[in-house]
Amino acid sequence: MSAKTESKTIGGGAKKVLYTLNTVRRIGIANSTKALKANNACKACGLGMGGQLGGMTNELGEFPSVCNKSVQAQSTDIQAAIPDEIFAHDISELAELTPHQLEHLGRLTKPIFKEAGDERFQIIGWEDALTILAANFARTAPDRSFFYSSGRSSNEAGFLLQLLARAYGTNNITNCSYYCHQATSEALGSTIGTGTATVELADLSKSDLVFVIGANPSSNHPRFIHQLKGVRDRGGDVIVINPAKEPGLVKFAIPKSPKSMLRGGDEIASCYLQPRIGSDISLFKGLAKSLLESGHEDRSFIAEHTAGFEEFRRDIASTSWSIIETDTGLSQAEIEEAAALYARSKSAVFSWGMGMTHHLHGVENIEYIANLALLRGMVGRPGAGLLPLRGHSNVQGIGTIGVKPVLGEDVIRQIEKGFGLKLPSRKGFDTMGSLQAAHAGEIDAALMMGGNLYAATPNSTWAGEALDRIGFKAFMTTTLNAGHIAGARRGECLILPVAARDEEWEATTQESMFNFVRLSDGGIIRHANVRPETDILAELGARLLPEGAIDFAAFRKHRRIREAIAATVPGMEDLQHIDVAKKEFHVRNRLMHKPDFRTGDGLARFKTRPTPEGATKPAGNSFTLATIRSEGQFNSIIYEERDSYRGTQSRWSVLMNPQDIERLGIAEGQTVTLTSDNGRMAGLTAVGFDVPVGNMLAYYPEANALTSTSVDPRSRTPAFKSIRVDLSVDERTG
Question: Where is each Molybdopterin dinucleotide-binding domain found (predicted)?
Answer without folding.
Answer: 623-723
